[in-house]
């Protein structure tokens, strides 16, 4: 009985509250305001004044909708007001023309419309309220004219195109300025009321017209932006700035005037309270003017503080009003609640007798329903527990994936590089080859390769998850490919006495496959087969052609198999069968399936006696996209992906014969891994003078020592390798230096980014030391070829050279400077370095690296080439030529000339 009464009581409280609320809303005047102000401060001030005015009028229910400066949203908001049949609509248009139609629709629907701040096109609205924007423009012009003491040149920064305030302010401003011939608006910049629209065009205008006296911006934000732009040019004190708005906020017009940023601002009143008053008059059908203008004034240093104090007092009074209104609303709610309670108690007294009679009848029924409800609640609780358990399982699964990849990065390859490099050195060491240690060292090498393959497999999984794999299929004989992969497992088969066979009737059968991806599929399937097949077992691969234009490749073993109820999970990531007690990452089969799907094929599993995986591939290439096909492969059985992802550390690590320090090339190694630095320095120091940097001073060291070649990592302590390479290749002092990127990042995006930054070679870790050595030698050899070209064509460099524009530009510029100063005997190497913008040492090293001789000899060679031309012309004697080219004496000139050309100047002149 108590429960029934309680539920009835709660129901009628809610019902009466709803009825009371509906009645209260139904009796109120519904006013809808579509707000278009884009500035937070303006919007807050406008909304605040309107809300306070509404709070003083209990009969008004004000709804404010913010269009967020989106025209379509504002149209939708007004359409919603019309469909809700509000009594009055107040609208502040974003733009004039787009809002005209929907305002006319409201008028036709019998809903009066008050347009505030900005007008619409035409006169089909009830009334307009806002500042006189034409008068604001005139006030700004009058202020400038009355206060001007300078050039009279003015820049006008307009508001958004299509906005009526911007158009009208410009009209008023130009009307008044044009009446005074001393003043001239030299430029009008079209802004969009925001700061960023001003800076770039204004900077260009100020650079052309630095004697501007005034800048008139259509609002204070653009005025502040204009001041900041002028400040970057050092003109902020020479130019005076006038804005519009005069808001009393942080960075508002009043604060900008007080701080001296603006010379003045014209107050642009929001008129929120006046708007609501006019709306009520329109509702009451009182006579009002079609156009209602808000008053405005100029705010400058003379009155800024006074107006600020007045506005602060108004804000304080508004806060007090809001506080009092809140208290009134609370009391109204309490009154309404008490009134509802009285109504409820009266109603309750009327029905209590009926409930008493009904309670006896309903007790039994309620008891039955209670049991059903308890049973239902128990079911819901059980289902909820199941859902929570499933959510926990999903969360654990996701957490497992996240933890699986936590800490995984390409930098894993750096320590593997060191391990494998030193192991290779030990394997090649003659003292160890004949000892028992060689087997243990080879075991380390084998497991290091295994670890590397596992890491690459994890990275492949990540790429599959992020859909970054691109198929690169080429035609291959599937029998030869399969046989080549099997060679890697035949040693294991022999050791464990496993019958390992390949069955294929058509050995010439060709398929389009991505050799790298299919190699990984084979490796995963064969690794599993050998892992779970006991000694003396059997593993076979059979290749069968089908009549439906497909080829089936079957991998069958006599191993432990997989439980039948778990077969559907085999290709899921991280899955391990219940009978699998061996270590496994659980992603090999998942990757295999994804790689086969990339080939538009399928992979299936049968498991009765052992396991049989069947890969089905399509013949031909019609099922592939053109971008998925490559024409040739460098090596049919060693895939490009494997070369990129897993360059084995090779031999050829023996020490070479020592080279004298003077004959060694210099090498700068930019790497922050100390162990790798130590390894490379020990291996390269016999042939090169090795300098090192951890990346923090890489650019400075490179420009200081100007090495012959640079080896650089990507992930460094300060700048990354891409940035360092880009800077060095753009710097004239270091642009000729070959750069090798040596990194663990082997994906296509990283390689492409490296090449775009100007590097000459991109090698990935783990790297082949012999390939690294050969890369260094090849780049230096190419540099020697370039040097030979410049040496033999030093005075005939073409405007466009295929050997590199930066070196060509440097040589051309250097020769031009020498030619211009060829007759100056005081012209020195220091003078040349100064004109080229480099130090004497850097110039010496740069020239030595490019043309192979020192700069002094080069200057003499240029002079002697010029002397040869003058001797051919036969217009000057030998002494005149010697002194005109800055030689100290004719004898010294004759000696230098004979050393270069093999004959004396006199003999040369006679022969020509």
UniProtKB/TrEMBL annotation:
Question: Is Transcription a UniProt keyword of this protein?
Answer: yes
Which InterPro entries did the record assign?
A: CheY-like_superfamily (IPR011006), HATPase_C_sf (IPR036890), HATPase_dom (IPR003594), His_kinase_dom (IPR005467), HisK_dim/P_dom (IPR003661), HisK_dim/P_sf (IPR036097), Homeodomain-like_sf (IPR009057), HTH_AraC (IPR018060)
Segments forming domain Response regulatory: 666-780
Task: Indicate the segments forming the HTH araC/xylS-type domain, all copies.
Answer: 812-911
Signal sequence span per UniProt? none
Which SUPFAM superfamilies does this one have? ATPase domain of HSP90 chaperone/DNA topoisomerase II/histidine kinase, CheY-like, Homeodomain-like, Homodimeric domain of signal transducing histidine kinase, Periplasmic binding protein-like I
User: What EC number(s) are associated with this protein in UniProt?
Assistant: 2.7.13.3
Matching entries from Gene3D superfamilies are given as: 1.10.287.130, 3.40.50.2300, Histidine kinase-like ATPase, C-terminal domain, Homeodomain-like
Please list the residue ranges annotated as the Histidine kinase domain.
Answer: 407-621
What sections of the sequence does the record tag as coiled-coil? Answer: 304-334
Q: Which UniProt keywords apply?
A: Coiled coil, DNA-binding, Membrane, Phosphoprotein, Transcription, Transcription regulation, Transmembrane, Transmembrane helix
Enumerate the catalysed reactions.
ATP + protein L-histidine = ADP + protein N-phospho-L-histidine
Q: Which residues cross the membrane?
A: 341-361
Q: Which residues carry this modification: 4-aspartylphosphate?
A: 713
Question: SMART domains under this entry?
Answer: HATPase_c, HisKA, HTH_ARAC, REC
* CDD domains assigned to the protein according to its UniProt record, in alphabetical order: HisKA, PBP1_sensor_kinase-like, REC_OmpR
Q: What class of enzyme is it?
A: transferase
Listed name of the protein: histidine kinase
Q: Which organism is it from?
A: Flavobacterium magnesitis
State the taxonomy lineage: Bacteria, Pseudomonadati, Bacteroidota, Flavobacteriia, Flavobacteriales
